[in-house]
């Protein structure tokens, strides 16, 4: 039996943190929370987190600063992440998304259900990619009848 994926929600607003936590947990994922980027950094560096969601603006350490700090750690593979922000046009979200290879950036207010769907979709894609290792050619099914003939040292004639 495989382990339930764990999600860390890093959000300074206690009500929003509870709503996000409840919604993500309801989708069948294990959820932990942190009330700011510093606490999130400490938890993420301990390992065992499969995905995290971080707010952009928080006390002590904001979301972008958290991402920068994590990316600077040697021998640390950062889990996939979503950044949440209340900022509008003054934030270059596409550049931030590219710079940090984020799964997404959600602008507040957003549907907590949409967040759960994004997380589940990404984790499912990761799981599918991990389980679809290439098969050796000898185990692959024949794609065309002509391959069947060549497998036995005979050549199928294409003349009809």
What is this structure, in a nutshell?
The protein is α/β, with parallel strands linked by helices.
Shape summary = globular
Relative strand content: 15-25%
Q: What string, H for helix and E for strand, traces the elements in order?
A: EHEHEHEHEHH
Q: Helix/strand/pairing class, anyone?
A: alpha/beta
Characterize the biggest β-sheet.
5 strands, parallel
Radius of gyration: 22 Å
CATH homologous superfamily label:
Response regulator
The CATH architecture comes to: 3-Layer(aba) Sandwich
Q: Which sequence of strands runs across the widest sheet?
A: 2-1-3-4-5
Mean pLDDT: 85
pLDDT below 50 for ≥5 consecutive residues: which ranges?
136-160
Distance between the termini: 54 Å
Q: In total, how many beta strands?
A: 5
Approximate helicity band: 40-55%
Describe this structure in words.
The protein is globular. It has helices at residues 14-26, 37-45, 63-71, 93-100, 112-131, 145-151; strands spanning 6-10, 30-34, 51-55, 81-85, 104-107. The longest helix has 20 residues, at 112-131. Helix 4 links the parallel strand 4 and strand 5. The protein has one domain (6-151): 3-Layer(aba) Sandwich (Rossmann fold), CATH 3.40.50.2300. The protein is built from six helices and five strands; from the N terminus they run βαβαβαβαβαα. Helices cover 41% and strands 15% of the residues. By secondary structure, it is of the alpha/beta class. A five-stranded parallel sheet has the order 2-1-3-4-5, sandwiched between helices. Helix 1 (14-26) packs across helix 5 and helix 2 (37-45) runs parallel beside helix 3 (63-71).
């Amino acid at each position: 039996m495989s382990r339930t994926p764990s999600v860390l929600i890093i959000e300074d607003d206690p009500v929003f943190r509870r709503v996000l936590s409840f919604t993500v947990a309801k989708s069948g994922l294990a959820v932990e929370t942190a009330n700011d980027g510093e606490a999130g950094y400490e938890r993420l560096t301990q390992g065992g987190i499969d995905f995290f969601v971080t707010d952009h603006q928080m006390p002590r350490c904001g979301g972008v600063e958290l991402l920068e700090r994590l990316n600077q750690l040697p021998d640390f593979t950062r889990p996939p992440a979503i950044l949440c922000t209340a900022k509008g046009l003054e934030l270059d979200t596409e550049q931030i998304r590219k710079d940090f290879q984020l799964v997404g950036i959600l602008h507040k207010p957003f549907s907590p259900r949409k967040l759960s769907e994004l997380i589940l979709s990404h984790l499912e894609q990761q799981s599918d990619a991990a389980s679809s290792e290439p098969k050796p050619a000898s185990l692959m099914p024949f794609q065309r009848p002509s391959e069947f003939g060549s497998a036995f040292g005979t050549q199928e004639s294409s003349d009809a």
